[in-house]
């Protein structure tokens, strides 16, 4: 449906079961709690496309209110083909560099990008923490996820920002780096956060305080 301004109105209904989709104003990912179907709003096409949505079970149970915040989780095939610097940066510890004609097995299989409204410092801390630790957790289907303000394309750009900012913060002087993030198969995982005393939050997987 197109209104007189030329904008196309997209009905927020589940294409599978017809239920209304619960969403905040700035959300770009929606979840049907009737049939457990997820959707991403693709702005270029103004249409809903299927998106995988899961919810992580907390590693530690706390006696506090639990809130699920969305993360984009990508399959990662990160390759650093060259890096010239005066010392060793953090990328050398997390992502293995290709060299000597052989590919070194990379420990990172998933790249995590927080997709909710928080500071860029929190996005970097959480993105690095989850990507570096590669946590194990069980997933289930839940009843609600809102607050996903970054699309999968946005998340790819943020992932690159996290990747490069890690090097910029190290004491060595990097002069050149060639890399391929190799991000694929994006999905949304609702990560559990506990609301602590006051307005603080702590994630229920790694225990990172915000």
Q: What is this structure's SSE topology?
A:
Blueprint: E1 29-32, E2 37-42, E3 47-51, E4 53-56, E5 66-76, E6 79-85, H1 91-94, E7 110-114, H2 120-133, E8 139-140, H3 152-168, E9 174-180, E10 183-195, E11 201-203
Parallel strand pairs: 4-10
Antiparallel strand pairs: 1-2, 2-3, 4-8, 5-7, 5-10, 6-9, 10-11
Helix pairs in contact: 2-3
Q: Determine the number of helices (DSSP H or I, runs of at least 4 residues).
A: 3
- pLDDT averaged residue by residue: 81
Terminal-residue CA separation? 41 Å
Helical fraction: 10-25%
What count of domains describes the coordinates? 1
Residue runs with pLDDT of under 50 for 5 or more positions: 97-106
The outline comes out as globular
Strand content: 25-35%
Number of E strands: 11
Rg, Cα atoms, Å: 19 Å
Largest sheet: 6 strands, mixed
Query: Which class do the helix and strand fractions yield?
Result: alpha+beta
Q: What's the helix-strand series?
A: EEEEEEHEHEHEEE
Can you describe what's shown?
With about 210 residues, this protein is an alpha+beta fold. The chain has one domain (about 30-195). Helix content is about 15%, strand content about 30%. It has helices spanning about 90-95, 120-135, 150-170; strands at about 30, 35-40, 45-50, 55, 65-75, 80-85, 110-115, 140, 175-180, 185-195, 200-205. Helix 2 (about 120-135) packs across helix 3 (about 150-170). It is globular, with a radius of gyration of 19 Å.
